[in-house]
Specification:
The complex is a heterodimer of chains A (246) and B (222). Chain A has 246 residues and is an alpha/beta fold. Helices cover 33% and strands 22% of the residues of chain A. Chain A starts with a helix and ends with a strand. Classes of the chains: A alpha/beta (246), B mainly alpha (222).
Amino acid sequence: MRLKNVVRRAFLPPFQSLGRALVRAGAVIRLYATDLACIRSGREVFAGVNFTVAAGEALLVVGRNGAGKSSLLRVLAGLIHPAAGKLVLEGGKPEFSIAEQAHYVGHQDAVRPALTVVENLAFWARYLASPGGPGMVPETSAAGPGADGTSTATEAALEALALTHLASLPAAYLSAGQKRRLALARIVAVPRPIWLLDEPTSALDTATQQRLAELMRRHLTAGGIILAATHGPIGLDGAQELRLGA
Amino acid sequence: MSALAALLVRDVRLAVRLGGGAPMGVLFFLIVVTLVPFALGPDMALLRRIGPAILWLGALLASLLALDRLFAADYEDGSLDLILMSTVPLELAVGAKALAHWLTTGLPLVIAVPVLALFLDLEPLAMGAVALTLLVGTPALTFIGAVGAALAVTLRRGGLILPILILPLTVPVLIFGVSAANAAVVGPVPFGTPFTILCGLSLISFIIGPFAAAAALRHGLD
């Protein structure tokens, strides 16, 4: 099942060891895009997008409705091929693609109503955190002990999003905000350096918005990167702003 | 392995909890098989002779019933995006999902065969032959069907186009499944000849199905 990695390990040993050396030397990651363009069914959504985000930095993607905020995040998540431009992650793990080192929380929460809250989360934790998968770069324990898809990580993530009391409830009974919290618990349970959040605060109450802001600040302190599409402040001071469709 | 096992367990658990696939498939199978004697009349000798073919046709149609849900639910709720972003190769994820689908919809059909064979007055030997060929052949139907399910996932009302895409591709499986079942009862070909080809068709579908379905999913989502 590690087919992809086996192939990569066979062909990429020099790059991999270089990557490891950089990590050991405390090298930080940096994500940059040059002249990125996206075309959806013949219509240009955005073009000429440039940005650089380094470890510990956040980039807020803003713009009117339909400016291409969600499309930009989906391009970064590897779900849409960019029509033009380059997207590079420096200092990451070269054997993994950018998408494999990123978490994506889109408009859909990927929560299955027939499973309980903890079953939903435990599945994604196990599926996304395969052993030898992309952890944080550099490796830190900032995400908490055992944050590797184990049941401890699942419990810690439920705790972090205040879902512990709902753990055994079928997800069908969750409100929109609680479903969003469950989706966000997923990215806490499995450490990945890049967070791609599409309007993460939608449907969240103010207490949870503060909780999320705290989690995001902790992620940045640990050397992570956050790109968030948003219409309002999400509690990250000093974040860069990228305006689309201006 | 743990990621694929997690996906398999999740899909089986969902199928059992939602309760759609297995009972509906078996009931549909039952109805198709029951309709045939009404159409043909109570000619026991005729039913006995064409029994294996009827069971195979019924199983083929029943296995199509829930196939359009194979990727549709994951597409609708955004799970497919995350599956694509995982380090697990998409081909293996498709294989795990197809296996879970077969366990919850294909296997119950095989288990139902002995009961339905009584309706068609089949000998125990013929019943065993049909059950064995279906056990080997229905996974091929699911894995071939996965390609159609992947193609239909981004289409509105894709469920309607799915049988049209898939049924022509299942013809070889049907031919060798029925001929193996018949060979066991009446000959003249030894059972092993068509049965080996049926096994081969299944093995080919295990390889081609996941790769083609994964390519279709990647293309469809872009």
